[in-house]
Amino acid sequence: MRPGEWPLAIPMFAQFFLVIATFWVLKPIKKGIFVAFYDEHGLDLGGWHLEAAQAELLAKVANMVVAALAVVVFSALSRTLRREKLTFVFAGFFVVALAVFALVIGDPGHFVVWSFYLLGDLYTTLMVATFFAFLNDSVSPDDAKRLYPPIVLGGVAGGAFGSSVLSAWIDSIDHATWIWICVGTTVTAALLAGLAGRVVARREPEPAREPEAREPEAGNPVIAGARLVARSPYLLAIAAIVGLYEIVSTLLDFQFTSTVAHFLDDEAIGEQFALVFTITNVAALFVQIFVTTFVMSRFPLVVSLMTTPLVILGASMGYLIVPILWTGSLLNTADNAFSYSINQSAKEALYTPTSRDEKYKAKAFLDMFVQRFAKSIAVGVSLLVTTVFTDFSTIRWLSIAVVALVAVWLFAARYAGMRFREMTHDR
C-alpha cells in the first residue's frame, strides 16, 4: 500500500471487520435457534411435515421476498445518499431491530424464530452491500487490485474473530447479551464509515471518476437496476457469477445442515455449527493473508475468480464419495473460506470500472435480488430432492448438480475476468 492510502484503508478495514464479526456472531445464533426449534417441533404446513433442514429452506425463500424489498429501499436511497450516509441509515435500522430482539429472544416462538432468522440474513445483505458500494465508489480499478485484499482482510479477520469468540463463549453468555454486543459493534461500524467518508471527501481529485449516469432517476429502482444488467454482457457475466455461486452455496449449505442434523441432536447441533464456522473463518483468514494478495497482485483477475469454483468442485466430489459428518462440514469450509476471501475481493473488483449507476443500482439488484432469487432456485431443487428421496443417503446426489453448475460458473468467471482486463487497459 502507498502512504497516502492508509487514512482510507484503516477505517474501511476496521468497519468491515466489525460488520463481518457481527454477522458471524448472529449467523450461528439465529441458525442454531431456528434449527434446534424445528428439530424438536418440526413444521407442519397442512399435511406436509418438514424437518429442520427443510424448514430452513422455506426461510431462505422468505429471504428472497425480504431481499426484493431491500433492493427497492437501497436503490431509492442511493439516489440521494452515498457512501457513509447509506451506512448511517441502515446501521440505525439494525441497532433498533437488534435491541428489540435482545428483549424477546429468551423464550422464542414461531414468529420470533422466523423474524430473527430473516433479520440475520438482511444484516449481511444490506451492511455488506452498503460497504462495497462505498468502497467501489471511492477506489480506481488499478488501485482496487492492491487495496481490496488488505481491506477485505478486515472482513475475513472479523469473521474469524467473531466466530471464534462465539464458539469459546457460547455456553457462558446468553443470546440476549450477544445481541446487545452486536448493537455496540454496529454503532462503532457506522462511526468508522463516517471517518472514512471524511477522508474520501478531502481527496482531490477523486480517483478515476466513472462516466455520467445514463439511467434516468425516475421509475422503479429495481427495474432500473435490471435494465442496466440486461444491456451489458459484462454485468450479465457478473450476474451469472453471483447467481451460480448462490445456487451452489445454498445446495452446499443444505447438505451441510442435513448432515449435522442427521448425526447430532439438541445443543450439539449449535456447537457443531459454531465449531465449523470457526474453522471456516480461520481458513478464510489464512487464504486472505497468504493466497489472495499474492494471486491478485501477480496474476490476471480471472485466476482469482476461478479459484473458488475449483475448490468447491473438489469438496463436492469428496462428499459425493464419502457423505459423513466431517466431509459434510468441509463443504461449508470449502465454500465460505474462499468465498469470503479471494472470491469476495475478486468479485468486488469487477465493479470498479463501471459507472456510478452500475455501482449502486445494478450492484444492488445483483447482490440482493439476483442473489436471493438464485437461493430460491436452490431451495426448490433441494425440497424436490428431499420430497422424492426421503433417506439421508440421497442428499449426496445433490453434489452432481453442484458439479454441473460449477462448470458454467467457471465459464462466466473466465469471460468476466477477460472483459475486466480489456476495460481497465482501455482506461
From TrEMBL:
Transmembrane among the record's keywords?
A: yes
Q: Quick one: signal sequence residues?
A: none
CC per GO annotation: membrane
Question: TM segments?
Answer: 7-26, 57-77, 86-105, 111-135, 147-170, 176-201, 234-252, 272-295, 302-326, 397-417
Q: Which Pfam families match?
A: TLC (PF03219)
Q: Where is the major localization of this protein?
A: membrane
> Which keywords label this protein?
ATP-binding, Membrane, Nucleotide-binding, Transmembrane, Transmembrane helix, Transport
User: Where does this protein reside within or beyond the cell?
Assistant: Membrane
Membrane-topology annotation of the record: Multi-pass membrane protein
One GO MF annotation is: ATP:ADP antiporter activity
Q: Does the keyword Transmembrane apply?
A: yes
The entry assigns this protein to a family as follows: Belongs to the ADP/ATP translocase tlc family.
The name of this protein is: ADP,ATP carrier protein
